[in-house]
Amino acid sequence: MGQREDMLALIRAGYTARDGGDTDSLVSAFHPEGVFTLMGNKSALELTGTMQGHPTLREAFTQFTAGFGFEGREILSELVDGDRVAVHSRVNVRYHPTGKAVGTEILDLFRFQDGKIVELIEFADTAQIKAMIA
């Protein structure tokens, strides 16, 4: 496979791991110094912010998967430019403590280094997420 196909395959494997609650496989898709940022106002939603490195990512992703399930992900578009990939997807998000679910769209911006995700910036409807947990 070429670099483009390798990056897209790793992203899809990461999505499968996230959707299945497999934190270890999700973290393994990241470079050891990888960074994940959930964009949003931290005063509005505590989950937002930046996490870096496998130990921190593992802790954060464990919290995310315990609280929120992702179901029925549909990738709407993928754009690849060099070591960067943008993925627009639609997913159902289920808040585990209440079982409440909503459909939403997410934009993920990836940057790769050494065949791993070195940066992921995620744009989600944090107001919708806050309403789910309120």
Could you describe the 3D structure shown?
This protein has helices spanning 3-19, 23-28, 54-67, 126-133; strands spanning 30-38, 49-52, 68-81, 84-95, 100-113, 116-123. With 134 residues, it is α+β, with helices and mostly antiparallel strands. The chain has a 6-stranded mixed sheet with strand order 2-1-6-5-4-3, with helices on both faces.
Helices and strands, with pairings:
Elements: H1 3-19, H2 23-28, E1 30-38, E2 49-52, H3 54-67, E3 68-81, E4 84-95, E5 100-113, E6 116-123, H4 126-133
Parallel strand pairs: 1-6
Antiparallel strand pairs: 1-2, 3-4, 4-5, 5-6
| Helix/strand order, N-terminal first | HHEEHEEEEH
Overall radius of gyration = 14 Å
Helix content: 25-40%
The largest sheet, given as strand count, sense and whether it forms a barrel, is: 6 strands, mixed
Shape: globular
Strand arrangement, major sheet: 2-1-6-5-4-3
Are there runs of 5+ residues with pLDDT below 50, and where? none
**What oligomeric state best describes the polypeptide chains here?**
single chain
The assigned structural class equals alpha+beta
What's the N-to-C terminus distance? 45 Å
Mean pLDDT metric: 92
Q: Given the structure, what is the number of helices?
A: 4
Strand content: over 45%
